[in-house]
């Protein structure tokens, strides 16, 4: 997977990632993606927007959008400085 400043860009996310209840996600998926901020490139040509998202429990069935910008370095900074307070597998 492609990275920029240590952050995944347009990662290959699991099937149903945007429409699966967090309580129904596999342990493997939670270990791989919970609290991992990543960048989605939503632009083409002259218009570019980078959306920073993270599966963090902010929504019950999809990742949370934590920022957006037209600068990939700024997007990476947003992702690298984002922290998640808890993990659903911490007590297991």
In short:
By secondary structure, the chain is α+β, with helices and mostly antiparallel strands. It has helices at 27-33, 72-80, and strands spanning 3-4, 7-8, 38-41, 50-54, 64-69. The strands form two sheets. Strands 3-4-5 form a three-stranded antiparallel beta sheet, covered by helices on one side.
Task: Note down, in words, how this protein is organized.
The chain is an alpha+beta fold and 92 residues long. It has one domain (3-80). The chain has helices spanning 27-33, 72-80; strands spanning 3-4, 7-8, 38-41, 50-54, 64-69. The strands form 2 sheets. It has a 3-stranded antiparallel β-sheet with strand order 3-4-5, covered by helices on one side. Strands 1-2 form a two-stranded antiparallel ribbon. Strand 1 and strand 2 (7-8) form a beta hairpin. The protein starts with a strand and ends in a 12-residue tail after the last helix.
End-to-end Cα distance: 29 Å
Largest sheet properties: 3 strands, antiparallel
Shape: globular
Rg (C-alpha, Å): 13 Å
Measured as a percent range, the helix fraction is 10-25%
Strand neighbour order, sheet with most strands? 3-4-5
> Which structural class best describes the helix and strand composition?
alpha+beta
Per DSSP E runs of 2 or more residues, the count of β-strands stands at 5
Count of discrete structural domains? 1
Helical run tally: 2
Bin the strand percentage: 15-25%
* Mean of all residue-level pLDDT scores: 92
Written as H for each helix and E for each strand, in order along the chain, the element string is EEHEEEH
Low-confidence stretches: none
